Amino acid sequence: MHEQSLFASVPVHQHHELLQQLAGLTAMQPRHCLERRLIFKAYRKPGLAGRIGASQDLQQGDLQRLNKMLNGNMYYTQVVGPVSEADFGPTGPVDQDIHMVGMDDSKPSPSSYDYERQPWKLEFRDIPEAGTRSAVTSRLMSSATLPQGDVVQSMNAWGYHFTTEYVVEGDMFIHNDIAIFLHRVLHYPGGNELNVPRRQLPALKDMTLFEKSGSYVLQAFIIVQDGSNQETMKTASQHLFGLREQLKSAVLLEQADRLSLDTRAK
Amino acid sequence: MADSFTLPLRPIFEQRDHPDTLPVEIAQINNQWGSFREVNEGVLRNKIAEEEEKDGLDEVEESDQDATDLDSTERLEQLYKRRAEITQFAMQAHMETMFALDFVSLLLSKQAPRQAETSMSAFLKQVAPLGSLNAEVVNPPPKPESTSKDISTVSRGWRIQNFNAAANKLLQAASRLETEVASETRYWNEVLAVKDKGWKVSRLPRERQALGVQYGFLEATPVFRDRGLASLRRAEDGALLLDEGLIPSKARYVRVRVIQDGRLSGCSKPTRSTFDGDGTIEDRILQARDTVYEEELFHELVREARAIASFGVTTRQNLIQIPASDDLEILLDLVDTDENALQLQHNISQQGTSLAEGLAHTIRILLAYAHRQNLRRRTLLPPPLTPKTRSIPEHQLIRPALAYIKHMSHVRWLQSLLKDLFGVLQSANLKPPAYTAKVFSTRKQRHASPAPAVETVIGQFLTPLLSTFNGKILTPRGSFSILIHTNLSSPPFGTTFDVSFSMPEYPDFGSPGKLSQREEVEAAITHLLLLDVVFTISSNGSPKSEGEKDQAKGTWEAIYPQHGELLLSPSKSDKRKKMKISLSRHELSIEIYTVCCIDGTGRGTCEHPSYPSAPHTWKSSPFTGSPNQPSLMDFVST
C-alpha cells in the first residue's frame, strides 16, 4: 500500500478556527483521537548477516533476494495503540487534599487503564519516494494488527528493540477518500528513563508538549491499495490537490521534507 | 426620505422678460390656420375626424401588410428587394464617405502631404495635385441682433430642459434607491428569519453571489443530496422566493395502499397537508424538504424492489407491487399530495388503514436510519483507494417491513392451527396443557454499542425475526417447541419453522427439523399430537387394569402408533378389537374394528367394522367438553 500525504503546520491560535472550518468542509464532527505510539528499532541479529557460504544450491536470483533481505536497510517502525482520556491517570496529588477525611476511597483510584488489553497495530512507513514529479509525499506503508497486551516480547522476537514512546493527540476528519488528521505530539513527563513501555499512563495534563508552542500538524493523506497503478496514484494526488485548493485560504498544505520523514535506522 | 431632501434640483422658472405680444401670436395663428372667422365647430370636427382617419389608415396599412406577409413567395421577393435596398444604401454611404475622405485628405495635403497621401484615392491623386486645396478662416458676417437673441433664448431653453431632465433623473434615482432599500431590508429580514429558524443559509457553490438555503439531507444519495439546496431569490418587492430549480413545486409523497382480497382496504395519508401558493417561506422550505425526502424514499424503494424481485415484487414506472402474505398486497407509489382526496372510499377498513400508516412510517424511519448509517460509514477511516468503485448496497426499507408482515402472518397461522388442534383435543376432554408463545423473542444484543438508543432499537428490527412456541404435551416429560425464523436480509431468505419434539416414549421418533411449508408444519404437528393421543390412550388403560384386573376389559396397545392404530386384546375373548384414530385440524375421529387375525397386526384384508361401527368424532366447538358428548377416555373405556 502507498500513502500519499500533504502537510501543514497550524499555530495554536488557529487551531480552534481550523477545527471549525474542517468540520464545515467535511460535514462531520471531529473525532478526537489519542494514540500511544511506541517506536521500535530493527537490529541485525548476530550471525545472520553476511553469510554467503553454502549457497551452491541456491539460484542466483534467490541468492540476491536473500542477501537483500539480510543486508538491506533497517527501519524504525511504530506500534500504535488507541487510548481514551479515561485511560490516563488522575490529575495528580493535589486532588487528594480535596478528599474528605473518613472516606473510604481516600487513595487516588488508579485509572482503568489495562495494559494487558491494549490493542496494538504495527505501522511501517518507508522513507518517501525520491524524485517523484508529483508534489505530494508518497511513501510505501503497511500496517498490521498485533496481539493485545505486552507487545515488546513479540517485537523482540521479530528483531526489534523498544526505543521510546510518545502520545499523539488530535482530531480526525474524513473528506471522501481523504483522511485529515490534525494532531500534535505529547511527551511523557520525566523523560523516558524506562526501557519498556509504561504500564500506567500519567495524567493527561502532565504530559509535555513536544513542540513548545503547542502548534499542530495537519496531515491529509490517502492510502492507495496498489502503488504501481499509476491511474489510482494520480487520482489520489488529484484529490489531495483539490483539498489543497479548498483549504488554500486557511492553511497551506505542502509536501514534507523527504529526509525529515526518514525511517531508516542508521 | 424624500421629504427631508430639500436641495432644490429643478431650475427656478423665471418670467420671460418679454412674452410674445398678443398681436404676434394672432399673426402666427392667422398664418397657420387662416382667419378666425372661418373657424367653427364643423370645421374643427372635420379636422379631428380627418386626423383620426389618417391614424387609422396607417394602422390598417400595417395590419394589411402583416396579412400579406404571410404569402411566402411575396415575402421572399420583398426580402430580396429590401436587401437590395440595404445594399444600395450601404454602397451610397460608402461612396459618400469616400468622397468626404478624399475631400479632407486633399484639404490636409496642404499641411501634411505625407500623411494625407496615404488616405487619398488613386483617382484623386491622378486628377488633383497635392496641396491644391486650401482653407482659411473667414470672419463670419455679424449676425443681426434678433438672431443672437434667438440663439440665446434657445440655448437658455435647452439649458432649462437639461436641468429639468437631470433633476428628474436624480429624483427618480432617489425614489428607486428608496424602494430598493426597502425591498433589500425586507429580503434580508426574511433571510434572517429563515436562518433564525435553524435552516442552514449559505452561498451557492456555483453562483457565488446568490444565497441558498440547505434543507436536504447530507447523507442522502448524491443526486438527492445536491437537490437539497435551493437559492433564495428576491422578488421585485423584496419578498423571498425559493428557487428550487428543476424540481416540480408540487408536493409529492409515497403513498402506501393495502389491498386485501383484491380490494383496497387501506391507504396512508400524506405526511403534511399541501400549501397553496401563499404559504410562508418556511412552509415552502418544509414542503421542498419533504418532497426531496419522499422522492429519495421512492427512488430507494424502487432500487430495493428491483433487488428483491425474487420475492415477487414487481416495479412499474411509478408503482411497486409487493405481495406480502396470503391475500395481502401492498402498493407503493409516488403521488401528488392533493391526489388523495378523491380516493377516500367506503371500502377502507380500520385495520387496513393502520397497516398502511404503519408501513408508511416504517419505511420513512428506516430511510432516516439508513441516513445515519451513511454518516457512520462516511466518517470511518476510508478503505485504501482501488480502481474499482464500490457499489452502494440497497437500503433496507421494504425488507424489514415485509419480513414483519410475513412473520406475523405465519405466527398467526400457527397460533390458529394450535388453537384448533388444542380445541379439538379439549372437546374430547383430553385437557392438553397450555403452551407459551413468545412472539419476537429475538435475542437482544447485550454488548454495549456506542450507537444511540434509537439506532439500537431500529437495528434490532433489521435482524432476522424469531418467534418461539413452547409447550408440554399430554405425554409426561414430553414437550414440543417451534421456532419461526423470518429473514429477508441475507440468505437463506424466507421463513423457516424449526419444529422439535421431545417424546421419551418414542425415542426413535426424530424431530422433523427445519421446514418451510405450512403444510409440512401442519402435518408434523398433527402427527405429533396423534402420537400423543395414542400414547395417552395406551397408557391410560394400564394403571386402571392393574388396579381392577377383573373388571378390566384389557388394555389398548399401540401397535402402529404412526398410523394411530391400537389393538385391544382382551384376555377372555378371542376377538380382538382394533381402534383407528385420526386427528386433523378440525376433528378427532375414532373407529373401532373387530379383527379376525390372530395377532391383529394384519391390515386391510381381514378387518371388519364392529357393530357399533359408526366412527365417533369430536369437533372443536366453542362449548368445549359439552355434557352431551362423552369424553375420549369414556368412549375408549366402554
Automatic annotation (TrEMBL), chain A:
One GO cellular component term of this record is: core mediator complex
A Gene Ontology biological process term: termination of RNA polymerase II transcription
Q: Name one GO molecular function term.
A: transcription coregulator activity
Q: What is its main location?
A: nucleus
Key words, A-Z: Activator, Nucleus, Transcription, Transcription regulation
Q: Where in the cell is it found?
A: Nucleus
Q: Which InterPro entries match?
A: Mediator_Med18 (IPR019095)
Keyword 4Fe-4S tagged: no
* The keyword Transcription regulation belongs to this UniProt entry's keyword annotation: yes
Which family does the entry's similarity section mention?
A: Belongs to the Mediator complex subunit 18 family.
- Function according to Swiss-Prot or TrEMBL: Component of the Mediator complex, a coactivator involved in the regulated transcription of nearly all RNA polymerase II-dependent genes. Mediator functions as a bridge to convey information from gene-specific regulatory proteins to the basal RNA polymerase II transcription machinery. Mediator is recruited to promoters by direct interactions with regulatory proteins and serves as a scaffold for the assembly of a functional preinitiation complex with RNA polymerase II and the general transcription factors.
Q: How does it assemble?
A: Component of the Mediator complex.
This one is known as: Mediator of RNA polymerase II transcription subunit 18
Q: Which organism is it from?
A: Penicillium fimorum
**The encoding gene:** MED18
TrEMBL record, chain B:
Region entry Disordered, spans:
51-71, 610-630
- GO molecular function: any one? transcription coregulator activity
Carries keyword Nucleus?
Answer: yes
Q: Which Gene3D superfamilies match?
A: 6.10.250.2620
Protein name as annotated: Mediator of RNA polymerase II transcription subunit 17
Report the locations given in the UniProt record: Nucleus
Q: How does it assemble?
A: Component of the Mediator complex.
| Any one biological process term the GO annotation gives | regulation of transcription by RNA polymerase II
Q: What is the lineage of its organism?
A: Eukaryota, Fungi, Dikarya, Ascomycota, Pezizomycotina
| Species of origin | Penicillium fimorum
Sorted alphabetically, which keywords does the UniProt record give? Activator, Nucleus, Transcription, Transcription regulation
GO CC field: core mediator complex; mediator complex
Name the principal localization, coarsely classed.
nucleus
Polar residues biased stretches = 618-630
Q: What does this protein do?
A: Component of the Mediator complex, a coactivator involved in the regulated transcription of nearly all RNA polymerase II-dependent genes. Mediator functions as a bridge to convey information from gene-specific regulatory proteins to the basal RNA polymerase II transcription machinery. Mediator is recruited to promoters by direct interactions with regulatory proteins and serves as a scaffold for the assembly of a functional preinitiation complex with RNA polymerase II and the general transcription factors.
Q: Which family does it belong to?
A: Belongs to the Mediator complex subunit 17 family.
